[in-house]
Amino acid sequence: MDRVFKKRSGRLFAALMSTVLLTACSNNPFNPAAELRIMDVRSTLSGEGRFAGIRQSAERQGENSFILYSYSDPVVMIENRDGLPPVDFKRFTAQITLSDGTRLPLKEYPLSKGMQEGGQTEIQFPILSADTDIRNVVYPGNNAPRVQDGTAEVTLYGTDLNGHNVQVSFTTALRFESLVFRGGLEVPTEPETRSTPAPTAPNPGGQ
């Protein structure tokens, strides 16, 4: 009986030690990996009260009317824990879902951005201004937006100085507006289109 108890105690102790070792090795102190967290999500035009999204407007020059689009891309503040290695970001992906259930194809974008250890870095994600696919879906034929809202799921990928693959994800709301159709402004059937790029956010500590 005493021998059985010792065997069981030994197994239990071994199991507990395994659990402790696994927990302790979640970030190896001899080869640590960067640990990132999202501190803030805003937009490139947050100072104007704008959410991330697209705004449609119109401009009239003589006999001609022009549809204009301005973009407000998400900007994220990311923090790396003190004492952990710097990170080099190379790419990110974006999955956009509209409020009517339409799910656009997952897109991947290149990125070249560095992040120091124990610091915060701002990164702008041009998921709206980089191409016209989203705009064409939301404003078909330069008409009124088919939806007013959506969401973007973004994942950022990088490698830290110790060679570990690092990724961090966030979700942000999107807003699609029109200053043309809500105001009763008459727009030609096939107006010319112009785009206003999203302003570039400051990138302290980046490359």
Could you write a compact summary of the structure shown?
The protein has 207 residues and is mostly beta strands. The protein has helices at 2-24, 133-138, and strands at 36-43, 53-61, 64-72, 74-80, 87-98, 107-115, 120-124, 149-160, 165-178, 192-196. The protein is built from 2 helices and 10 strands; from the N terminus they run H-E-E-E-E-E-E-E-H-E-E-E.
Write the layout of secondary structure elements.
Blueprint: H1 2-24, E1 36-43, E2 53-61, E3 64-72, E4 74-80, E5 87-98, E6 107-115, E7 120-124, H2 133-138, E8 149-160, E9 165-178, E10 192-196
Parallel strand pairs: 2-9, 3-10
Antiparallel strand pairs: 1-4, 2-3, 4-7, 5-6, 5-8, 8-9
Any overview of this molecule?
The chain has 207 residues and is mainly beta. The protein is built from two helices and ten strands, in the order H-E-E-E-E-E-E-E-H-E-E-E. The chain has helices at 2-24, 133-138; strands at residues 36-43, 53-61, 64-72, 74-80, 87-98, 107-115, 120-124, 149-160, 165-178, 192-196. The strands form two sheets. A seven-stranded mixed β-sheet has the order 6-5-8-9-2-3-10, with no helix packed on it. The radius of gyration is 25 Å and the shape is elongated. It starts with a helix and ends in an 11-residue tail after the last strand. 28% of the residues are buried.
